Amino acid sequence: MKKSNAITHWFLGIVLAGCSLAVQAQAINFPHINTTGYAEVLAEPDMAEFSVQVVMVQDSAEQAKQKTDKVVDDFLQQLQALGLPREDIRSGNIQLLPQMHYPKNAKPEQKGYRAVRKVKVTIDNLEMLPKLLDVALKSGINRIDKVQLGVKDPSKYQAVARSEAIKDAKLKAESIAEGFDRTLGEVWQVNYQSPQVRPMLSRSMAMDSSERANSYQDTTIVIKDRVDVVYKLK
């Protein structure tokens, strides 16, 4: 009985596969042309996100927590004093881990506790970015993870890129059809996958404040789009 079921399933699989191939062959059984349209739009960044963190190693977990929380609290107060809304500042929970030392030819030893706490800030005024990073470092923040520049309304730029990609696909198809003495017909199929919603650009932090300020002003973000189109040929 089991052998009969296996044969039946195998036979059905061949039949279904054959039907699928037949449908595909029938579906493209006419003169056609495949084209891909590409487009890029340059946008000036008008917002930024940066992530920082505090790392403290102390003899006790309580000391590590207190010192880490103090640095973060001082930093948050300074950000709000500069006019940043609280909803644009996200501080994470503290992480406490034993700080281990691994000497040669000896057992591992615990050397206090390591506390880590992260803060992420979003701003819509890029001129403030170098100052805020300096404030972070002066507050006791000892690590800047990354700075990401972006645009607040990426859909506006994405719509332009999409429109240009469609034009590019059509122009290519018309040119190729003309080259083969054919006329471009109607669109038969369009394959499109929307790209990422929020274009961002990460920047290195290995520079001083004045260099960072200039680099942010000179930055452009490339927003790309593509569309695959199948046209019928007359």
From TrEMBL:
Keywords tagged on the record: Signal
InterPro entries assigned to the protein according to its UniProt record, in alphabetical order: 26kDa_periplasmic_antigen (IPR052022), SIMPL/DUF541 (IPR007497)
Keyword Signal: yes
Position of the signal peptide: 1-27
An example Gene Ontology biological process: DNA damage response
Superkingdom of the source species: Bacteria
Pfam families linked to this entry: SIMPL
Designated name of the protein: Oxidative stress defense protein
